[in-house]
Amino acid sequence: MLTLDPAPAWLPGGQAQTVWPALFSRRHDPAEPIVYRRARHTTPDGDFIDIDWLDHGIGGAAVGEGAGAGLLVLFHGLEGSSRSHYALAFADWARRNGWAYAVPHFRGCSGEMNLAPRAYHSGDHAEIGWMLDTVRQSHTHAHHGGGPVVAVGVSLGGNALLRWAQESGAQAGRVVQAVASVCSPIDLAAAGHAIGRGLNRHLYTPMFLRTMKPKAFAKLAQHPGLFDADRLRQARDLYTFDNLFTAPLHGYRDTEDYWLRASAQPRLAEIRIPALVLNARNDPFVPAESLPAAHEVGRHVTLWQPDHGGHVGFASGALPGDVRGLPRAVMGWLQAAC
Hints:
The protein has an 8-stranded mixed sheet, sandwiched between helices. By secondary structure, the protein is α/β, with parallel strands linked by helices. It contains 10 helices and 8 strands. It is globular. It starts with 13 loop residues before the first helix and ends with a helix. The chain has 2 domains: 14-187 and 269-337, Rossmann fold; 196-262, no CATH class. β5, α4 (156-168) and β6 (178-182) form a beta-alpha-beta unit.
C-alpha cells in the first residue's frame, strides 16, 4: 500500500512544499551525519564519472553489508548531487536498513568539470546503463553481491532511468529488479513550458541557470567553438539554454526534438520490469493534466499521483518538517516488487 503522511497545514501549496523541504526539512538525524566515500571511474569515451558510496561505518566498509541487504542506486535531478536533500534522505534509509547505497553523479555534477564535449540530459539512457553496470560490478566485487538491486531516479534522473528501462526491455531485469521515478518530468514539453512561465520563470529558472551557464562556459573553454557564447550569455530560460547547449551537444536537432525524443511518458508501456512512477499533482514543474492515466501504461508500471508533495518535497510533521517518509514509501514499494 502506497501511503505518505499528509502535508502539514503550515506548509500549504505546491510551491511551498517544493522550496521549504529542500532548504530546511530534516533528511537525517543531525547527530548522525551522512558520510560518503567517492570512487572515480573512466567512461568509455575517456571522461570520468564520480560515484559516492554511503559509508556505513562498519569496519571501514563503504557499502552495505548484512544478510539480505540490497543495493540501492539513486540518480539525482537537474544540478543535483549526493548532497541533495532527497539523496541524504534515501541515504538515511539505506543506513538504517543495512543496504548498500550509491549515487552516481551525472557529468559535471560532482564538483569537478568533466572532460568530454558533452554534459548530461533527461534522456541520457546510455549513460544510465553504463553507470548501473559500473555500480553493480563494484558492489559485486566488494561484497559478492547478495540481495536485490533497485534504482531510484529523481526528477531528471527519473526520466532518464525510465528511458533506460524502455530501451533495455526485458534485459533490464538482468541489471535491476525494480525501478522508481520520483517527480520526473516524463512529458518534457509540458514540464519545460511550465517551468518557463509565471512564478516558476522567476523562481526556478534563474536558480538553475545560475549554475548551468558557468558550467557551459567552462565547457566552451575546454572545447572552443562548441556553441555560440553570445547567444548563450543572453539566454533567460531553459528552452533557450537547451536549444543552444543541451540539444546540439547530445545529438538532438533542437529543444523540440530533445523534449520529444527524450520524454519517457509516450513509451511507458514498453517497460518490462516493475516500475513506480510517482508524481505529486501539485508539482509546480509537472502539470497534473500532463500526467498519464492507468490505461496509458503497461502492466509493469504503477502510477502513484498523490495530491500533495510539490516537486520532490513530501515533508510531513511539525516544523521544520521531515522528508524521510518519501524513501520509506518508495523503498517499501520497491522491496515488495522484487
